[in-house]
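Recall the central idea of this unit: under ordinary conditions, the amino acid sequence of a chain determines the structure it adopts. In this exercise we apply that idea directly, starting from the sequence alone.
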Amino acid sequence: MNIFKSAFAVAALTVALPAFSQVSTWNIDPVHSGAEFTIRHLGVSNVHGKLGGATGTVVWDEKDPSKSHVEATMKTDTVDTGEPKRDGHLKSETFFDVAKYPTLTFRSTQVKRTGEGKLQIVGDLTLGGQTKPVTLDVEGPAAPQPGQNGKMLSGFSATGVISRKNFNFGQEAKFQPPVLGDEVKFTIDIEINK
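Accordingly, the structure predicted from this sequence is:
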C-alpha cells in the first residue's frame, strides 16, 4: 500500500512542478477568493468585515518573480460586517459609495521574493476614486495542485494595512479616531487556476 501511495505522490509532484516551470497566466477564482478587514472601534474593540467577488489575473514567473504581475478587482457591494444597518452605511457615499464606485482594484507595480514561499508585492489600490500605493506581505504561491475540474490550482495569502485618511475614506468628523481607527488591517486570500 505504501508503494502505491509513494507512486501517487511522485506522480502528483511530477504533474504539479511543470505548472510553475515557466511564465504562466492564472485566473482568480471568485468563489474561493476574498478579503477580510479589521478596524478599531472607540479604541476598545475590533470590527471585522469581508469583501468578495474577486476577479482578475496573475502572471507568474517562477524563475524571476520580479517579472510577475497581479491585477485584481473586488465588488464593493459585497461588503459584509454581519450587521445589515452598518453594511448599508458602509455602502453609502460616506464610505464605499457603491453606486459610484462598484469595484476596488489592485494593480501590482513591483514583486519581489523575500524568503522561501514569501513575497512582497507593491501596487496601486484604487478605492473610492483614490489611487494610492500599498504594500502586501504575501505567502505563496502554493504548490500547484490538480483540481476536480481538470484545472491546475494554486493560491496566495496576503496581509497589509491602509490608512483611511490616505484614501479619503469615511472622513466625516463623526467617524474620525477614536470613533473609528484610521488603520484598516486586511487579509486577502486568492485561489487561482488555469
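The first strand starts at residue 24 and ends at 28.
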